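Dear support,

We are seeing what looks like truncated structure output for some complexes. This example has two components. We would appreciate it if you could run it in full and send us the complete token output so we can diff it against ours.
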Amino acid sequence: MSRQHIPYYVGALILVFLLAFPFVYTANDYPFIMHLLITGFFYAILTASWSMLAGYAGQFSFGHMGFMAVGAYTAALFSHYLHISPEATNLCTEYAFGDKWLVISNPVGVTSSTLTQDCLTQAKAAWDGKVVVENMPVWLSILLGAIMGAVFGFLIGILVLPLRAAYLALFTLGFSEILRATISAEIDITRGQAGIELPTLFQNGITLFGQHYDKTHKLPPYYVMLGLLLLCLGILAWIAHSRFGLFIRALREDQDAAAALGVNTTRYKVLVFVITSTMAATAGGVFGHYVGIITPNNLVILQMSLVVAMAVIGGIENFVAAAIGAIILEFTLEMLRNSFEIGPITIDMTIWRLVAFGIILMLVLRFRRNGILSPLIEHFTRGHVAKETVAKRMAAAGDAEEGAS
Amino acid sequence: MTNLAVTKLNKNFGGNQVLKDVSFRVEGAELVGLIGPNGAGKTTLTNVLDGAIKPNSGTVYLNGERIDQLQPFEVARAGLGRTFQVTRSFRRMTVIDNLMVPGLALDHGMSARQLREKGHEVLEFLTMEHLRNDLAQSLSGGQQKLLELGRLLMLDPDIIILDEPFAGVHPRLMKIIYSYIERVNDEGKAIILISHQMDSIFSLCKRLLVLNYGDLIADGPPEEVRNDPKVIEAYLGIDEEEEHYTGVEGGETSEATS
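Here is the complete output from our reference environment:
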């Protein structure tokens, strides 16, 4: 086994461990640990895709959680307002297709049972359970979320074309904040701070390998999120090793020089926004359906900072390191929630864990600018390059000496 | 055959006219020197030619195709390559990846493997083969200049603008740059060489263009340009102390004008 293959073997071992984990782990905290891992995978997708955008392409965007929210809210609004009914409600806007009706519910904002209900709820009350109204397919809402993420990524990519560094960061931060404020303000449609509910990923449960899992079981969403993470990492790996990856790194290094060498910088800058925002939006849609609710708090600046910090600590220029860093940090942050006592003093770790996290971030930025995991991976994968270069340099120096004598 | 036709090119920034009705042609494998005092408009002219700056008026045709309204990447694909006054290598990319960028950006009909082999040949020619997997940021200033030249070999344009290729370069590397210019010129490419090092300009170029405050004040063989009163005035008018450094009279090295 050569040294440069070690990271690949370690990666394969981690993958086998993650694939087997839901079947071999049987402790009482199974749902909690599974939830942590699903959330970790969610952040890993966001962090890895952001690492491609910021670390590879040099587009230091603060709008990534905004793209995530675009996907989640598109899925939520689609699922919340559109339904399939076997009978016409005669109250809502509705269109017949085949022998069914596509029912569009009307927005009424945050309501309670004493206030006005939306048209579909009224229709259901009149039917008294005799008519079963179906939600739209979850896969379709996630797909629409992904498409909307791509559209927003395209628009933002076009708008930030002339912007670089701090200006780009501020612009994208502005986009994210405007989106959050709009969602919070449009209570009638989005239900504002109360959040909007989404149907679960598998509303009727799912049977896998002869075993039925109900809709609250963590195993099916675990594999969905892990699958999405692997798909995203696969796409990112393909990009990183393709001419696209080469061009966006050139874009990061010097946009003008890349253009002078024939690289269509506009196309690649926009494309990298589209690809990474689509990934963030897809993750948002899946996570929204998993958690069952999305609120504007999901895109506060603290959440974006968390993604940035995870990427920085893992290694901003290596999306695999960033993804692994995100899972480890999500796990660590949650595990550190347990408060403890030192004599008479109670340490409230729900607060202090963030302090510890901040200190780690500052130390990494000061002493390990390319993260903790990324240099470790490079140590193995590029170690032979350094050795080869030293040998060639020595050979070149030897030739020069011979020539001189 | 390379044919660059620049006609009545004007460029101003606010009220400052940087290029004034600049017109010239470069035909075939010419090696043309572009000189002028600081602020003469040499780099602006380069930026207009490569599409980074759009002119206020005038036209630029390369091999019959109008390029003055194209984007820089389109100009590069049309056949005009350039280096920068201050080296702009892709610092956190390896030397070979630096070369692969222009190779892959242009569809030369070569596979990635063939391009990589070509990259190795280019590095061997530039005596940098042993550095191929090093990051560009670890190279010396002179080696980074060579790397920029190597990228142009991969781009394979019809006309090359070299902006101060000799500035701050070790004499050993200067020889490599000299042989580079000769090789590229022998391959039939036209070269516009911008330099303040008059000995290099006079020894390499058969034709000189002289810019002064945006005006093209001379265009001709070095001997003719050297004795042109307008050129002498442009250089000697800067500072009397620089008179013997400018080298316009004697063709000596000039650092004073850089």
